[in-house]
Design goal:
Elements: E1 2-8, E2 26-34, H1 40-52, E3 57-67, E4 75-82, H2 84-100, E5 114-118, H3 122-133, E6 139-145, E7 147-156, E8 159-169
Antiparallel strand pairs: 1-2, 1-7, 3-4, 3-6, 4-5, 7-8
């Protein structure tokens, strides 16, 4: 199955964006890719003690930007004014756990952000530059991060369909 580890987030209140837009309601902490069903139980048991010791925390979505930059936007995103260091620590704990289980770990650094949309043509590039030029200020959403989710992703004609495979509650040390 195609899987990833994530935290759920609210849809950010960005002017010009709507529920039909691509903004996913989650932040991927680690993408696993294709993983065999028999690897799931060891994965869950290996990660549970690493994540249970984290305390729940507030995340505040704020600031709009683009990768690689505003002049050449390929991905338009919302950043975090609160919760970024905690998300970074969760991602590092997950990567460490995946490596200990012999699973591949993404080499590029984790940058906490929520993707609003990917730029796939001239029209979206104009839309991205317009949004970046008039980017809203202040909080665009806030939520309590209380768990990490292992999700399976099935690609469908209307977009990816996600289902929760396992939950890792924060603030519950193992034992």
């Amino acid at each position: 199955m195609r899987a990833f580890l994530a935290v759920d987030l609210p849809r950010p209140a960005v002017p010009g964006m709507s529920a039909r837009d691509e903004a996913p309601p989650h932040l991927t902490l680690a993408f696993l890719g294709e993983i065999a069903e028999e690897r799931l139980a060891p994965l869950v048991e290996g990660l549970r003690p690493r994540l249970g010791g984290f305390a729940p925390f507030e995340a505040v979505l704020e600031g709009v930007g683009a990768f690689p930059d505003a002049r050449r936007p390929k991905v338009v995103w919302v950043g975090f004014s609160r919760g970024g260091p905690e998300l970074q620590a969760l991602a590092e704990a997950i990567r460490s756990g995946l490596a200990a289980l012999g699973l591949p770990v993404e080499a590029r650094p984790f940058v906490p952000h929520l993707t609003l949309f990917r730029v796939r043509g001239p029209g979206e590039a104009r839309r991205a530059r317009a949004l970046l030029a008039s980017a809203p200020t202040g909080a665009l959403g806030r939520t309590e991060i209380g768990e990490v989710l292992l999700k399976a992703s099935t690609l469908a004609p209307g977009g990816a369909v996600h289902r929760i495979v396992a939950r890792f509650p924060l603030g519950r040390p193992p034992g």
